[in-house]
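It is worth pausing here to work through a concrete case rather than discussing structure prediction in the abstract. The textbook approach is simple: state the sequence, then state the predicted structure, then interpret. We follow exactly that order.
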Amino acid sequence: MFRRFAISCFVALLTLPAAARTRPHYGGTLHVEIEGDPWQRPNGIARRLVFDGLTTLDTTGAVQSALASGWESDNADHRWQFRLRPGVYFHDGSLLTSTAVVQSLNLDCPANCPWATVHAVGSMVVFTNDSPMPNLPALLAGDDFLIALTVSADGKTSSGDIGTGPFQVTSFNNGLLVLGANETCWQGRPFADAIEIRVHRAVHDQWLDLSIGRAEMVEVPAEMIRQAQQQRLKVLVSPPAELLALEISDNGALANPMMRAAIAASIDRSALSNVIFQKQGEVTASLLPQSLTGFSFLFPVDRDLNKAHELRGGLTTPTLTLSVDGDGAMRLAAQRIALNLKEAGFNAQEGSDGGAQHADLMLRLIPLEGGEPFAVLEDVSRSVGQTVLLPDSSPTSLYRAERDFLDRHTLIPLVDLPRAYAAGARVRDLALDAHDLPDLASASLEDAP
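Step two, the predicted structure:
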């Protein structure tokens, strides 16, 4: 018995260092590098570190409470009221109130909102609309509706970067955004003491800094995922997170729906996925991924050049302007699309980003946020200034609504793309959240003090 006891103690002592190594540590600074703007909409990497929404999504895509502790609807979803979580404070010490929430929402969404009116009633935030809003709790988890302080408790206008999230802004100078841990965060203190985000950093430089230990997390563009894996980087890859789509104006030369349909039939989606994005995307002709609906395959993805010529009917159009929302692979994709259009009898010329609002064609990435297909469909349609109304929540209604929207040929789905990031060896418990972004608030550093 004594020998068994001694062996058990010896084994326990051996496992203690291993457990200590895997247990999250508080402290340290996470160094992150990105190519773009940390505050960009949608899904700038700093936004969900600093701000919270009324609701959030769990890893399955289900709606969960956040700044709102609960909600109810009445009048057949024409009216919703959300109860605020008590005792939540902004980073400057101002109490979260329903008035502050309404001010933030009105600033973020001055038009084309999922609601008609929003107002504060005591500790409630009340939304109303002439049409039903069955998806409102899921939509409020989106990036566009994160809550920022607009007016402080002493009546002064806020800088706009004060939220209730796990980190608060310390400084932003010379391309370096420094976020400090929010010690009194309502969700609990994050593990890292600080996050330093270096912006406008080329991907090549990001990877170099990761290899020499100057960065703990960097970006991996979809077209470079395979290369990163070949270099043995620790890569986190999301499910389909963004829809590459061609937005087509329905004015001027393209007011004729037959011309828009001809453009849709002329695009070679497989070439975009296989060549430009190195087989890291899924070709699609539907707004929603197959994983969300199960019927994405019903929308044909093959190019039909003969049909494109037939639909065009010999008609000619002036030179079409093609604008691109992005650089690198996005511009290569636009060039490939321009070649496809030329073969169908159209002449498309890439224009400057400054003329995007007046472009005939716009190649863009649209976020696919959430796990509820009805809410995702509404969010995607709203992102291009249109609205999809569903009579009920049946799969048949969902399919018909998507089909009716696509038949307008004002938005042509092309490829579903993932998001990806690479992490260094020091980082522990880094995962992607329900919005396919790195959950840096839950990550820790192995050698933190």
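Step three, interpretation. Residues 29-42+165-238+419-445 form a domain with the D-Maltodextrin-Binding Protein; domain 2 fold (CATH 3.40.190.10). The first strand starts at residue 29 and ends at 33.
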